[in-house]
Amino acid sequence: MAKQLVAEIKVQIPGGQATPAPPVGTALGPHGVNIGQFVQQFNERTKDMAGTTIPVVISVFNDRSFDFVMKSPPAAVLLKQAAQIAKGSGSPKSNKVGKVTMDQLKEIAKTKFEDLNASDIDQAAKIIAGTARSMGLEVEK
After folding, report:
1. Which of 43, 75, 100, 120 is the most exposed place for a label (fewest CB within 10 A)?
2. Mean pLDDT of successive 10-residue segments in the chain (141 residues)?
3. Burial of 75 (0-12, 13-18, 19+ CB in 10 A)
4. CA dihedral 123, 137, 10, 59 (to 10 degrees)
5. What pTM did the predictor assign?
6. Cα distance between residue 69 and residue 64, in whole Å
7. 3-state SS, residue 14
8. What 3-state DSSP class applies to 51?
9. Are 124 and 113 in contact (CB under 8 A)?
10. Which residue intervals of the chain are DSSP H helices?
């Protein structure tokens, strides 16, 4: 008999730093998943991405086993790293907090291309540029 999918859980965890504490423990606990096993596997797969927030989709099956898929880091996290800022602007139209170049946007677009709804890298870079502007970053040509 095939495994039956019971739940899909979406969480964002810093790479290489998962612990059984919230948000991991509170998300997996009610489904009876072995939290320690998930933490160990996640940290092993993400040890080279330490500190970067990584979205994870965890599929829980009826026999309490699980499988997880890691997505690319959120655009805002990658933009903050590229602009070397701690956080975006509270009022992005009037208060600019940093600058990013078109080359940096294209690098971020390459990283996120699979998760974006774009047909080519230039279009993906425009999507990322919109996110940058909404964070209070100036986009340099």
Report:
1. 120
2. 80 82 80 83 82 85 85 84 78 79 85 80 85 83 76
3. buried
4. 40
5. 0.73
6. 17
7. strand
8. coil
9. yes
10. 24-28, 35-45, 75-83, 102-112, 121-134
